[in-house]
């Protein structure tokens, strides 16, 4: 999944023409190619290259980020693609960062 080589069919899709203001929760996957202004909780969060999230709190099991996030992320597993732009702290278990990804914040490993 992290290399995005498989076709993903998320249970929830925020398309590029969609903006959501408020808390977003899913027990499955959320794919964001639009904008979310609010806290996000999900099993898997995928932020496409055009996706943007502004949030005080993002809590997910897996985060795959190619777009932009202004806010803090807490995830067991994090993958940041080369186009990822993060302004916030990342609390993570496993983390993988491609060359070119931008992080303006602290990285801290979870001790689960």
Tally of separate helices: 0
Runs with pLDDT <50, length 5+?
A: none
What is the terminal-to-terminal distance?
23 Å
Average pLDDT, all residues:
90
Total individual domains: 1
List the helices and strands in order.
EEEEEEEEEEEEEE
The biggest beta sheet is recorded as:
8 strands, parallel
Please report the total strand number as a whole number: 14
Structural class: mainly beta
Gyration radius, to the nearest Å? Answer: 12 Å
The best one-word shape is globular
Assign a percent range to the helix content.
under 10%
How large is the share of residues in beta strands? over 45%
Name the features.
112 residues, mainly beta, 8-stranded parallel beta sheet, 14 strands, 6-stranded parallel beta sheet
Explain what you see:
The chain is mainly beta. The protein has one domain. It is 0% helix and 55% strand. It contains no helices and 14 strands. Strands 1, 3, 4, 6, 8, 10, 12 and 14 form an eight-stranded parallel sheet that branches. Strands 2-5-7-9-11-13 form a six-stranded parallel sheet, with no helix packed on it. The mean pLDDT is 90.
